[in-house]
Amino acid sequence: MMQGPTNQNQQLRSGLVLYPSQQQAIEKILTELARQISSQFILLADVSGQIISTRGGEQNNIDLIGLGALVVSDLAASHEIARLTRQYQADQMVFREGQSIHTLTCEAGYHLALMVQISTDTPLGWARMIIRKIARDLGDIANTPPPDEDQFLGSSSEFNVQEDGLADLFNDALDDLWLE
Amino acid sequence: MFINWQLRELNLKIVYYGPALSGKTTNLEQIYTRVDPQRRGELISLKTYEDRTLYFDFLQLELGKISGLTPKIHLYTVPGQIYYEASRRLVLRGADGVVFVADSGADRLKYNLESWQNMKTHLAELNMPLATLPLVVQLNKRDLPNAMLTTSLQNLLHLNGTTVFEAIAMQGNGVFDTLKAIINKVVGKVQQELA
Lengths: 180, 195
Prior knowledge:
heterodimer; A: alpha+beta; Beta-Lactamase; five-stranded antiparallel beta sheet; B: alpha/beta; Rossmann fold; eight-stranded mixed beta sheet; globular
């Protein structure tokens, strides 16, 4: 179901922390989605384009890094078109019709973008309904931190965000990256 | 910023902003060329027939593990031409840091000022105030015969307190320093936000 217009600045913003229990829940949902609509390919990315998970597509040797960036940018562009034409609504879906494969892309909460490719044999209305529901479920998972989140970012965590030398560690890693 | 604890990844988005032809794409091309190919993705460019950036350029860098997390840096450019306003706005969304690439040519001052103002407007609309967003300014094309004095450019753009680098991006000069500086600032901000 479409929701009313919302503050567009709340849409597709970054700032997500995803914990293992959330990732596992996401994997379960995507597997179920792939089974329900016999999808050809599913891609879930955060709004910066970073891939969170995929289903299918292995045989096509896809450049997932590039694809993630393009999918979220395509969705962001559609949002911008909707904003400029004053048609913006939450939960909008972008539909690209193909000869053998349809591509549907939608936001999944504030932080995620979901792209699903289905065969043109799949009933479209049914697929849209399922994808929309799954997108909402994925968004809910991402927006609900698990009770054990403190163990990941606290001072006892392996990744100590308060570590004084963190910037130096990044500098060293960047130096390693650069070929003179 | 996006942390995926299951995959143990820290993802950061950095946007190169600036007027047309200031060297934003050149920065990414130099980074692409000079970074270990094992640690970067392909450079994706959506260009017009005239070979100008239409929508954005994109490059992902992957650093070695830091405190158990693998940092992945997503670098984007925006199209510089005035008429690609909407593209610039949407590429800025979700940015963790911005590099403003200014053209040092005296004849390009007007475009630098317009682009700077335009960036500030977009950031304000996106609820990303410049005062809190990690920002580095790169004064590019320092080898131009009509290059303005850096102090003049800094004064005209009101860059007091902003980290500024001189660069000749075509030769790779200043490109890495700029990248390191913005990543440092972004990491500092991430520490603040997560602490």
